[in-house]
Amino acid sequence: MVEGELIRVEGLHYTYDAEGHTPIEALRGVDLVVRRGEYLVLLGHNGSGKSTLARCLNGLLRPTAGDVWVQGMNTREESSLVRIRAAVGMVFQNPDNQFISTVAEEEVAFGPENLGVPTDALRVRVEEALAQVGLTAERYRDPRTLSAGQKSRLAIASILAMRPDCLVLDESTVMLDPVARRGILDLVQTLRAEGLTIIAITHNMAEALQADRVVVLEAGAIALQGTPREVFGQVDTLEALGLTLPPAAAIARNLRRRGLPLPEGILTSEELVHAVTHLREAVR
């Protein structure tokens, strides 16, 4: 692998029920490199292959054809899977499906304990992970009694305690209210600033604007990729793929269609407010 790369995907195909009567080809020749410290967002409508790709990145699914390399380890190699899954941790849409303990701190301890982390170091990891997600005061709670946002934070803490190089979030904000979603996104930005590689699957275009790079999947293949500005600037292509624009971009486009001479390339609410304010001052 090239220096600075964390994950390399080469010619990845994945077929569900490959040997059965109704095989479904979910991924079709995906090539992708994820760099260390990158915040990457995967977009695409349901069935585009996003979650399948995410599961291939840490060896939960292994390629039907092609290869996935994590820190130089191939996910096809059974002997490397423990290290791969420790390096690339995944948080699923419904945290309840991940919980196995009835005490929050025991939930956080489970992963590193199974990696053979010594007891003293294990205590430190649990303390640090709970503090990172703001759940120190909830350490003795039953995870099932936590709020939806707290459950998502606990699921993230259970991954952070394993000291991963990459955190994969599979639509982890979709079931949250706006306040809880904002809390998770703020946490992601903090982890990103600390150098953790983030891969997030989302349908929320406003969330995607925060990424370093956006990859759009369609029918199991990469249809678009680039910075958020590069990707969301391709309005016609996005609409053809059945995807919406970020809210501010959609409003700006509709205002232009109504005759308001707003500039192209508006993506954020701040940019929209600035453009409208500048336009009002220009016509005074």
Tell me about the biggest sheet?
Answer: 6 strands, mixed
Low-confidence stretches: none
The total beta strand count reads: 10
Percentage of helical residues?
A: 25-40%
Structural class: alpha/beta
As laid out across the biggest beta sheet, the strand order is 6-7-8-3-9-10
Determine the number of helices (DSSP H or I, runs of at least 4 residues): 11
Folded structure, characterized:
- The protein contains 11 helices and 10 strands.
- With 284 residues, it is an alpha/beta fold.
- The protein has a single domain, classed as P-loop containing nucleotide triphosphate hydrolases (Rossmann fold, 3-Layer(aba) Sandwich).
- The chain has a 6-stranded mixed sheet, with helices on both faces.
